[in-house]
Amino acid sequence: MAKDTGDLADDLNRARLGPVQPPAFELPPNWNIAPTSTVSILVERYDDAGQLLRELHPARWGLLPVWAKDMTFSSRTFNARSETVVSKPSFRSAAKSRRCAVPADAYYEWKAGGAKKRPHAIRAIDGSPLVFAGLYEWWKDKDAEARGEPDPWILSCSILTGPSPETAGDQAAGDAIADDETADARSSGGRASVLTDLAELHDRIPLAMTPEFAEQWIQPGDKGPEELQVLLEQLRAEILDVASGWEIYEVDPGVGNVRNNGPALLDPVPTLWG
Asked: Residue 78's domain spans which residues?
């Protein structure tokens, strides 16, 4: 789920991810974004005067490497496993040179159990945007001219994922602070709870970034395999702290149909005790 571009830029500035240039395009709010839809990505680039700019751009959600035969390729590259992104042909060029952030207000995940899977929303408790580590590419559509489209270039993106938090690992972290003050212990208990819930929800997690890490990730320029591996290890480690500030709750199954769209999709499902 993502806000319209103007509100999104304002949120990023408040979340210490600015200054973001005023968007030069408009995307309406979307509460049910499907792969291959258009999303906003945050990139850094140097303008002709050598000034570093931080900008939002519209991109197709599903990476199109330069050698992709057609746009259908992006239906299977909307996510990229962080463990293999440096070496996998679909992603390694973008990982080296074209890294971005993909902001969202929330995302949905389906939990197995009972007769059918149930959708859940995941978002930051404080309302701040989730800023996922991403990659982007420019792809030239050779059939654009035949369709009468003046611009053949398509910007596309992918979101990096990693293993969901391990309950055992989080328990070890909880043991390490067992002697801290009671308030800290209570805080750790909440952290353990949400991380356990995430692990039970799915075995993979989109890798959201801290503002400080995002600064490093979206810096323009090439990074070698060793430098990238160090960054990716840091990204996977920091997701524990980032995700500890999230909340998870069940939402209406209507989110499973991409034709459904509206703020009600993000409302919690009423419970017997709620």
From this structure: 5-164+202-264
